Amino acid sequence: MFKTIFENVRSKNPLIHNITNYVTVNDCANIVIACGAAPIMADDKNEVAEITSICNGLNINIGTLNSRTIESMLLAGKKANELNHPVVLDPVGAGASQLRTDTAMQLLQEVKFTVIRGNISEIKTLASGSGTTKGVDADVADKVTEENLNEMIAFAKAFAEKTGAVIAITGAIDIVADSTKAYCIRNGHPMMSAITGTGCQLSAMTAAFVTANPDYPLEAAATAVSAMGYAGEVAHTRLTEMDGNSTYRNYIIDAIYNMTPEMLEKGAKYEVR
Amino acid sequence: MFKTIFENVRSKNPLIHNITNYVTVNDCANIVIACGAAPIMADDKNEVAEITSICNGLNINIGTLNSRTIESMLLAGKKANELNHPVVLDPVGAGASQLRTDTAMQLLQEVKFTVIRGNISEIKTLASGSGTTKGVDADVADKVTEENLNEMIAFAKAFAEKTGAVIAITGAIDIVADSTKAYCIRNGHPMMSAITGTGCQLSAMTAAFVTANPDYPLEAAATAVSAMGYAGEVAHTRLTEMDGNSTYRNYIIDAIYNMTPEMLEKGAKYEVR
Amino acid sequence: MFKTIFENVRSKNPLIHNITNYVTVNDCANIVIACGAAPIMADDKNEVAEITSICNGLNINIGTLNSRTIESMLLAGKKANELNHPVVLDPVGAGASQLRTDTAMQLLQEVKFTVIRGNISEIKTLASGSGTTKGVDADVADKVTEENLNEMIAFAKAFAEKTGAVIAITGAIDIVADSTKAYCIRNGHPMMSAITGTGCQLSAMTAAFVTANPDYPLEAAATAVSAMGYAGEVAHTRLTEMDGNSTYRNYIIDAIYNMTPEMLEKGAKYEVR
Prior knowledge:
3 copies of one chain form a homotrimer.
Chain A: H1 2-12, E1 15-19, H2 25-34, E2 38-41, H3 48-54, E3 57-61, H4 67-82, E4 87-90, H5 98-110, E5 115-118, H6 120-128, H7 149-163, E6 166-169, E7 174-177, E8 182-185, H8 198-212, H9 217-238, H10 245-258, H11 261-267, E9 270-272
Parallel strand pairs in A: 1-2, 1-3, 3-4, 4-5, 5-6
Antiparallel strand pairs in A: 6-7, 7-8, 8-9
Helix pairs in contact in A: 1-8, 1-9, 1-11, 2-8, 2-10, 3-4, 8-9, 9-10
């Protein structure tokens, strides 16, 4: 199924509106192109509803948010809901400041999301309404492990049930769940956490995948998560002794660019629970 | 002539003020350095006029515009006109939202531009005052082809006549025209469209080229367009099987860095009509 | 000593709050990770004090400043002072506009900095309260040379005395001084000036180094400066004929990622005066 889902992205070439942070925005744009979609970035309140209208899907990322862009996120999210466009939320740093937690909670209340993708600390913050995220990285205490995996899957399914969104919790083991079914994905490489914005890139790409596969949000999100992890594996095989996180960043985007649906089908490592 | 024009950029090292979007700004800065000029990015209304004054040329790019930066674009543009500095407009996404179309039209009315560079959909939007740009990419229906080339050249010349600016329409075939003369440039590689911001980079570089060659805006813009396309060709020859759009992005900037005026003179593919 | 200082960064993994420009922010984040620390970027007045509180150190960079972010810089700087967190100032373009000079002077008055890092024109502007910085690069007339080195060291020590901050003046020869002692560092490569943001990256990394070594701000800043220069040397040895400033940018971050404290100890070139 991952193969068909990825083929749909490449053949439909969906246009994705991104309201995202200025740290990783360039990588987000390039990876959206690499996977077969097209990005547009726009965050002014006087154009976001209109830009969302000409697009096929929306990605809202709250990193480097401010009062001006928060208003735009709400406007674009509501317009996308009106138009029945898929919407992805990346609650970057929810739990790290009251502003980020409050903004994420307000977005959850006023916008219906198709997928919510974050690290475990961010998702726990959204589920409980408060949190202790360590900056923009997951807290070690929260980590998904083989030991707590069943518990974490149950948590993801329950939060999916509550929000009506597919929940994608990414880390060493990724969980992508709706209220009844969860994909546990074991693609990826530890070095991916040495690059800023692999999560942001994945959220942008997830928006492309769910937009091209509107009837299969769970499978589309799982495919995007698996593709990102597999790209991390492929890219890592290219690294020479002197390469570091900057070259790795480029190679991951390159790997998405060169990945065929067949390659992904073979490379994907997951189980359904 | 392209050789002399490029030599002037490298020898004069013009300082270029860029008010540009946060998506591709880093690549714009690096390519401006790569071609032999120096960039400064500043977008606050309380400093843009002063920053423009210490610079030699100005590049205004409306991607990710907002009410704060629109005001700054107008202030900087007017100051540059006062000082007789070359000014380039990149109307990113004009036609994709009313805000972008209106802003581009207001800039055209209040600022005299030396060069306007965009894709065909953006330029058509400016010429007609409204448009249907598909996001930030050109609409397929608008595409410049060998079949409609004469018509498009006439369109470019007429719009150059109307605005007093050199018009650079870039795509598979590039047209760079003033009211009486047009360069049709056939450098470039289709994969360039798989990178975000090659257009933005070209606009920033065009500002450097026209600033270093104030008496030859048409030839300077044509040289910049040709150099960007030729860099795309050179960079493409370096790509291995596993390289994708991210590595290609780096190699294009590298190719500008290593391009000599002699190489460009030989590599440029154009005709004058 | 450089070895121990670098080891502390890698073992303590400090979290660094960056309020920085949108031109080079991605490279700043990636180099902070590369050196062993963790970055968070946040610039809204409603969260900066809180974000600073969960971090261990703060980096304030005034490139692409605006009225909104200036307020945030002051709030974050004061909160960091309250908490006794190290704070680095990068006065990008001070002297190039009144707004930048005034903002830098106001920051100096209201915030106590641990390190101030800039090029010689920027630092001279801060010391005198006015200046003639050529854009964001140092003015040639200001350049630190073997001939004026003693004078420049005296200047740096005097300004360190006045501000209570370690002063890091970077260029072909780097000077890192407190009121009584100066490191003259001769690492680096001239091609580093062909990349946008090597200075910004160094400031972000300096924040990580002083945060992990709170009792040795002078040595920590000198180590960061030396590491950046040495990375420029190592990265340069990798360049092939077709590589330019964009690949070089990636390789410098890669070199920091792969640099061990032992390698730095051997590669550092400095004298104490």
